[in-house]
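Hi team,

Filling in the usual template for the complex we talked about on Friday. All components are listed, including any nucleic acid strands or ligand strings, so the model treats them as one assembly.

SUBMITTER: L.P.
PURPOSE: interface mapping
COMPONENTS: two
RESIDUES: 654
SEQUENCES:
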Amino acid sequence: MTQLDNITKPKTRRSKRFLESRAPKLTENVKSVMIMKGGNTSQTITQALKDVYSLKKPNAVLYKKKNITRPFEDSTSLEFFSKKSDCSLFLFGSHNKKRPNNLIFGRMFDFHVLDMIELGVEKSVSLSEIKTSKCPEGTKPMLVFAGEAFESDNEFKRVKNLFLDIFRGPTVSAVRLAGLEHVLHFTAMEGKIYLRSYRCLLKKSGCRTPRIELEEIGPSLDLVLRRTHLASDDLYKLAHKQPKALKPKKKKNISRDALGSTLGRVHMQKQDLSKLQTRKMKGLRKRRAEMVPDKDMRTPKEAKVES
Amino acid sequence: MAASSVEELLAKAEQEEAEKLKSITVQKELDLDFDLGNLLACDKNRIETRDFREQKKEDFLRSLARDNTQLLINEIWKLPTERVEEVIVAKLPEPTTRLPREKPPLKPRPPTKWEQFAKLKGIQKKKKTNLVWDETAKEWKRRWGYKRANDDTKEWLIEVPETADPNEDQFAKRVKAKKERVAKNEFNRLKNIARAQKVKTPGVGLVPKAQQSRNELAKAVSVAKVSTASVGRFQDDLPKEKPPKNSGKRRKFDPLIGDFSSEKQKQLDLLKTMGSKKPRLDITKAVNQQMREEDKEEAAAKRRKGGGKRGRKGNMTGKGKAGKAGGGGKAGKAGGGGKRRGKPGKK
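RESULT (copied from the run log):
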């Protein structure tokens, strides 16, 4: 019942605010991740889930109990949880003999599964194992994707899009230059993805732009791509549809000519040509009897103004 | 001489610039793609597997990351900055990467019946003030809501008009009229919502549906039977039609002034049962209720056992047994029967 329908109206302001925050909007809220465990999990997986939770705090929900579901076969349980907690991204960790140390990253559209990607964790170093000072919670990370697989392979392209969606954090209009501390680096090599997380130190260089030194913090995961369940093209297109109000308004009356100069049109009223101020030439001055035509003939309505 | 010294100076200046920039320049074959709105950089350069295996993996990845991050930081530092409360802040552009939305965009609400009519007639909405001057109270009161101005249900004196019945309650009449207006407004509001969401509403009786259940069909038959001019008195029954179950008055009240002796008898009986020490326990009723509850619990446990399978078996049966034992014990003791869950005892 997390829908603002007018039949049962919310009775308190607080509940009204809650329902409004969950209703579909023009500019949406930050996407939050729900992190859950499957029927059987290993130590590496629980550590990895906790690390991702601490990376994504406060826009993440970590469920403690195990959920005996298989996302690739039946996604109704995931969809139910997503509806209840209003999270459109999910991370499902599990471990069994056939798929050891399994992580399923996914996202939802309208509380139905859009994309799901299954990755296996081959090697992991958790946050607690690397003993350095960490970045504060909630810093917007810089994301770097390296490797030509992220451009050429379709599945890897979707993986890159999904990781961008998960890790980017809230969209801000301005960022504090000294606060750019956290870097997440994804490298695609031979079908594997290496995730490393660094803290960047801005050192003095001769000029304004600082020199970067990196210090490894945070989880480092070696992932191998297993199964994927990607959305069909039309569903993917549907999910990208933006409402008309968000489209940037085109400024009218601005055009560019072939030489690159910006042109605009100035509309003027009709001029009274007899009152037009032109150069006085004594010889051509109007005599009583004669009428001399004007020097300039300009089209009355428009005059192209060059800028 | 001067020319050569000028040249020397220029060369030196260039060298210094190059030195300065050396620490932040990075050589790459292909330029990176940047999406500064998301603080994103994409490196399309090939990663040589030989390089990868020569060095230690971590060092290779770290140097690659350092180079890419340096390029990203160079781009970010090119953005326009401003000072906000003693902090230098760079203004980010709009993110260029297209990402899917969470929920579908909102569709505009279809206009209500009044809004359609107003548009047709060209009636504009007039802005009204929130407060209205109330003459009787001599102050500004709300136009509508709690303690509103000119509230006709709150008048203490109403003159009975000449054409009205002298025994009629004018105050009750006003209150009833208000209730009817409120109900009509609510009804119209819900009709507007139903029209907006394209939900079928029943005109009279039942909602048209694709598949009807047996109960719904029976109800439809009984509603149709009663909807004649003489309210179904002269309608023949269908073959195998049973009389409707829940028709007639739900509660029956004795008339106020009726049989005095039977009323007196009833009241004396009531006093007797209240005064007696023995509890009122209908044994058969209690036993039947207990058996029904046990059957229900067994059926529920069986269903849950079939569905849940693993670890829950132990819990369920344990609970079931304890429940049954507790229930049995209770019914055995006095005072269990009439009060347990069922409807309150009828007189």
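MY TAKE: Chain B touches chain A through 57 residues (CB under 8 Å). The first strand of chain B starts at residue 33 and ends at 35.

Thanks, L.
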